[in-house]
From TrEMBL:
NCBIfam families: thiH. SMART domains: BATS. It comes from Syntrophotalea acetylenivorans. It comes from the Bacteria. One of its GO terms (molecular function) is catalytic activity. The keyword Metal-binding applies. InterPro entries: Aldolase_TIM, BATS_dom, rSAM, rSAM_sf, ThiH, ThiH/NoCL/HydG-like. GO terms for biological process: thiamine biosynthetic process. Residues 70-314 form the Radical SAM core domain. Gene3D superfamilies: Aldolase class I. Keywords: 4Fe-4S, Iron, Iron-sulfur, Metal-binding, S-adenosyl-L-methionine. Its cofactor is [4Fe-4S] cluster. This is Thiamine biosynthesis protein ThiH.
Amino acid sequence: MTFLNEFNQWTPERVQQLIDAAGPAQVEQALANEHLRLMDLAALLSPAAEGYLEQLAQRAHRLTQQRFGKTIQLYAPLYLSNLCCNSCLYCGFNADNQMERRTLSLDEVEAEARILHERGFRHIQLLTGEAPGAVENAYLAAAVQKIRPFFSSISIEVYPMDECGYAQMVAAGVDNLTVYQETYERSLYDELHPYGPKRDFDWRLNAAERGGSAGLRSIGIGALLGLSDWRKEGFYVGLHARYLAKHFWRSRINISFPRLRPADGGFKPLAPVSDAALVQLICVMRLLMPDSALVLSTRESASLRDHLLPLGITQISAGSSTSPGGYGQQAESSQQFAIDDDRDAEEICSMLRAQGYDPVFKDWDRAFLDNSNR
Ligand code: SF4
């Protein structure tokens, strides 16, 4: 059974009913269970669990320290291109937005990569819009090969590919795939993506699975928080994460919590997510997926990020630019979204050490994979 089959069994109405049916007894039962069932997931995401935030936070904190110790892994995003043929209403790179568009040449990619390498980063995430004819698999593979000497882990957050495309990325040196569903609510997804290849909900939904089949070492998923009800989105992210962990047990599953930020085009969150809701969601995901990396980007403010760390976050970005060529130039050009935490890597490391965490720039090397294949 593919994830799409499982997903289709969980209509929004069915998920809502499960969440609505949860009361204090269901929440307490869920908190007492070592492994969460789907009904526990719904109970902990429900309004009834809001009175148990302290217990949730303590358990999430304990689990995170047991599995990860006091470490936080740092990574940096590198935007390769802001060309895009899609119409995602919430995104600054939306094809309808008038802005300067550019795709970095391979030499420019290398120049940006060198800057990030000099800043200490060894884990990098490459991002692009979707632009057939301009940004293709061959370009991405060439970019990955160009920067491979500088980084021990290369992640992609790009357009969905078929399994051969992901295998091509693995061969080039990519080990990590991130693909957000944006919203798991199909009807809303249709409204938010009026045209372009991204309209194909099912193709996107199965992308993580295709990446797993192609042998990617880690697979990241998430919902763009602020588009739809976060409790239902949290349920679907949990359902998806559980499915991937079961079927691709050799891969690590990463869960991200991107909350909508101001972007060119002026899109406003349709269902704003409060800080308390974000805390609840992060804690629940930690309880559901004790071994998953939980990722928080510079979309969030410095102070909130500092406070969220003990609850289960294990990876954060630092000193980020969200525009192509943004590290080598002084003034930011068109960004995908505005960042809120603009501290550089050194400042983030100082903050982490002050909180008793070890900042980790490298926790993976391709040699591990090469050895395991011998
Ligand atoms: S979210 Fe991605 S696909 Fe959609 S407009 Fe932005 S860059 Fe393009």
